[in-house]
Design a protein that fits this description.
Blueprint: H1 6-14, E1 40-46, E2 51-57, H2 59-63, E3 71-77, H3 82-91, H4 96-103, E4 110-113, E5 118-128, E6 133-143, E7 147-152, H5 160-167, H6 178-213, H7 217-249, H8 260-322, H9 338-359
Parallel strand pairs: 3-7
Antiparallel strand pairs: 1-2, 1-3, 4-5, 5-6, 6-7
Helix pairs in contact: 1-7, 6-7, 6-8, 7-8, 8-9
């Protein structure tokens, strides 16, 4: 099993050319890694009676969705092309500060209102089974009146369930607006946290069983790294609690009052995620204590055996010391059975002491 590296997880979020100090607000600079070869647009237009799905389309085709009578969901995979994002922002009248936050992949989750749109920034997590570490990706959502624009760092997300629901004509999502679609996407992100936490919980159970049977420094180091990853997860998910709370308290015209119960449920799920993370952090701390107690117990067992052996040899050494003094007038030195008598006396002492230790239940 490979060792966790929480620093690698954290620094990977901020590795790239950082933003220079002193630039004016709204300056577009990509902060993060380029995770796709080229940006890819996709668009889903839907209403109660129609659905149109387009994949890998040019920007010009996306612009046609502005004329759609229904709801349009435009997704961009790959946000490293600044010129393309700047053009996209001009076409959809996005504020430069919103584009700046979208390009900064190290930005914490946030909720911000603009004149004609709402910006939502979330974090999506994946658990790398092979390397046993967390991978984070920023997802930005811009909610307009009849449009939802999403920006992802790479291909692949947790929204496949939402896409399947859109294909079903009888689903609730087809009958509601872009605000409900935004809620559905954020809800999918929060639900994915439970799957990640389930994998971490399985790993904690594995480490616990290994620490009980074969405690080692390598396992202890893995526990410490796992605690670091849980700390990173908590620091990232905690702003999600503020984001969902802001959604509940906002008075923006972009959100209809009918989705308030759904937002309240989303807030409850976020609290459950944070509680689970805290419980796992306590469990990881308990594993460190378990390691220390297990090692201490094994050390005590070793010391107990050594103490018993030393205690047995104390009288044997005493007898051997007496008959090893070689005084001239010691009668046993010239006795024919002196040597067997000394060995017999040592054996009797050892047997008596073993019987005494056993009676006291010292071993």
């Amino acid at each position: 099993m490979q060792i966790f590296n929480p620093l690698q997880t954290v620094t990977s979020l901020f590795r790239s050319s950082p933003k220079k100090v002193g630039l004016p607000p709204g300056t577009l600079i990509h902060v993060g890694e380029q995770k796709v070869e080229r940006p890819i647009f996709s668009c889903i237009e839907y209403g109660e009676d129609h659905l149109r799905v387009q994949k890998d389309i040019p920007l010009e085709t996306c612009l046609e969705s502005k004329k759609s009578a229904g709801v349009s969901w435009i997704n961009l995979d790959g946000i490293h092309d600044i010129s393309l994002l700047e053009r996209f922002g001009k076409e959809f009248n996005l504020h430069p500060l919103a584009l700046e936050d979208i390009l900064n992949t190290g930005h914490p989750p946030k909720f911000e209102e603009f004149d004609d749109c709402v910006l939502l920034i979330t974090k999506m997590f994946f658990f790398d089974r092979q390397n046993k570490r967390l991978e984070a990706e920023q997802i930005s959502l811009v909610l307009k009146e009849k449009q939802l624009l999403t920006f992802q760092e790479r291909m692949g997300d947790v929204f496949e369930g939402v896409r399947e629901r859109l294909k079903r004509k009888s689903g609730r999502i087809r009958q509601r607006g872009a605000d409900y679609l935004a809620y559905a996407l954020i809800d999918s992100v929060v639900d994915s946290y439970f799957h990640v936490l389930q994998k971490i919980g399985d790993l904690l159970d594995f480490l616990e069983s290994e620490l009980l049977s074969h405690p080692s420094q390598e396992l202890l180091q893995q526990v410490h790294h796992l605690k670091g990853q849980l700390m990173f997860l908590r620091k990232t998910i905690w702003p999600m609690r503020e984001l969902t709370a802001s959604l509940l308290q906002n008075e923006s015209e972009m959100f209809d009052e009918s989705i308030t119960p759904f937002l309240r449920d989303l807030y409850d799920h976020t609290i459950q995620v944070l509680d689970t993370v805290e419980n796992y952090r306590d469990t990881a701390s308990g594993l460190v204590d378990l390691y220390m107690s297990t090692v201490s117990q094994r050390m005590n067992e070793v010391m107990q055996v050594l103490t018993i052996m030393a205690s047995i040899f104390i009288p044997l050494t005493f007898v051997a010391g007496i008959y090893g003094m070689n005084f001239e007038l010691m009668p046993e030195l010239k006795w024919r059975y002196g040597y067997p008598m000394a060995l017999g006396l040592m054996l009797i002492c050892a047997v008596v002491m073993l019987w005494f230790f056993k009676r006291k239940k010292w071993f």
